[in-house]
# Entry
Amino acid sequence: MARNLSMKDAINEALDLEMRRDPTVIIMGEDIAGGAGAQGEEDAWGGVLGVTKGLIGKYGANRVMDTPLSESAYIGAAVGAAACGLRPVAELMFLDFMGVCFDQIFNQAAKFKYMFGGKAQTPVVIRGMVGGGFRAAAQHSQMLTPLFTHIPGLKVVCPSNAYDAKGLLIQSIRDNDPVIFCEHKNLYASMADVPAESYTIPFGEAAIPREGKHVTIVAYGLMVHRALEAAETLSKEKIDVEVVDLRTLSPIDLDTIIESVEKTGHLVAVDEANPRCSIAADVIASVTEHAFKALKSAPKAITAPHTPVPFTPVLEDLYIPSAERIADAVRKQLK
Amino acid sequence: MSNNPFPLPKEKLLEAYTKMKTIREFEERLHVEFAKGDIPGFVHLYAGEEASGTGIMMHLEDKDRIASTHRGHGHCIAKGVEVEGMMAEIYGKVTGSCRGKGGSMHIADLSKGMMGANGILGAGAPLICGAALASKFRGDGGVGITFFGDGASNQGTVLESMNLAAVWNLPVIFVVENNGYAESTSIDYAVAVDSYIDRAAGFGIPGVTVDGTDFFAVYEAAGEIIKRAREGGGPAFLECKMVRFFGHFEGDAQTYRAKGENEENRANKDCLKIFRSKVAGAGVISEAEMNKIDDEVLARIEASVQKAKKDPLPTAKDLLTDVYVSY
# Structure
């Protein structure tokens, strides 16, 4: 039975269902219950934005572990516990904090299997917030997906809606490789119909939330919504846009992208990340390499500028790709 | 053995000696082979430090896990990783412990509880907190030991992990193998406190310092804190003061050392000589018995080198395998 659920609640439900199903699933992070050791309420926060609220009441402090503010230590502990048979889901509140503990992810978790000759697996999920729009400034707003996607051994997921978030998170927890699960903070409140039961969405399968025949827009996360907004505007101008939602960045579903470009002949790749070595750049390079003949115009990347994320709303709104910028790019392609 | 004054029966003493001798000869031989140019990459030798890894590991079972360092060969051997696979790995062969894809700095065998040598200094400390957490979660009584040098003792990962292990009351032993040098930099320069015990106390963790060239000192100190951790008493810190017979890496000219330092270490701080003189002096193991072990060890190392040299190399298809479980 499907209910209208926010992405935040869908993520909570995915964690709940997997913890119920598999006793080796544990979750840890800073304030994921909140108030540990304090005089007031247990589960005071349930994560800074309440994503993990209620889980400590169901599964206890042995499986819902508040951590000291030590990202290297507890992310590394999650990685080590994964290599020893548990399935930890570690919350790194803002994935910008990856800078503090990246070694444990890219030099340790990502490499164990290869470096140890195949004799290790590390089924850990690192989940946390990405993206701008919260006026949270340069160190709490980044879209660092290209950084994670670059690393062999990591899988990178970035859902655009509540339905996908639930299915992809359940898949991430069951997956036997390390997964970076990127939750756009501006989508936590977005609503979708979400079945109550458990389901998975396989990695490497893009979705097509809007079919069209004139131009392909490839996007992920919040940018899917901007792309859909642009498509809606353009439909009034008789421009028929197809939107491809990547859902997972590593692995990436090149087949669906190429199939769409072969149909439309035009590609706009949208990315909230900075432009150099971005997902958009990667998509354009791959399409150019594998489907050059299908292109009727030069592909266009719409990304954030090569700057940190600014604080003040007027600048941040300029920083994040808008539906207008996307629509303009599409119009230029068809000229 | 009513006249055995040691805390281990003779057969265990023989096992410990065999391990230490195997480590020593493995490293001495690598020193020679590396100079010939047949071994690719970086090699960091553990010779001189054998009593530490062995003294600790004599208390461990397969369910107990260790996280090692870049100087990891000794930890591997002491934890039971097969010498032949290690040698083949160091030669980059497909028969190696990691199919030639890890090399000297990444030898691991999770089935033996060996979670990997590690090229990133201090990186093992968080990982072993996770291993210990898994043991605690299952209630299997397993402990985790993380080794690091005096150099890596200054890494934030080690210090954060000491706090985390104390906060979560994890069965973790933090072992600093203090050979006096972080690569070439003296501990007198790079570690601000005079005593690691004081540093451990700052984290609410009991600490003990032992002469790491004395197998029995290490064995007894480790036994006590490992037992305590197993029984739920939480983490502890162990400093083994020791010497490194070779340089930081093979090829290190060691010009930072005092004149005659290496000779002095070999003459008076050799943990194998010290062990031999103690057990032979007490009449528990004869020189002849140990000489026989020496011969067996040398033959095993020789065979492992010959085999490694002959073993097949990985092929192009191996480049792309084992990145993911599924992709």
In short: The beta strands of chain B are 65-67, 144-149, 172-178, 181-182, 185-186, 207-211, 236-241. Residues 10-36 of chain B form the longest helix (27 residues).
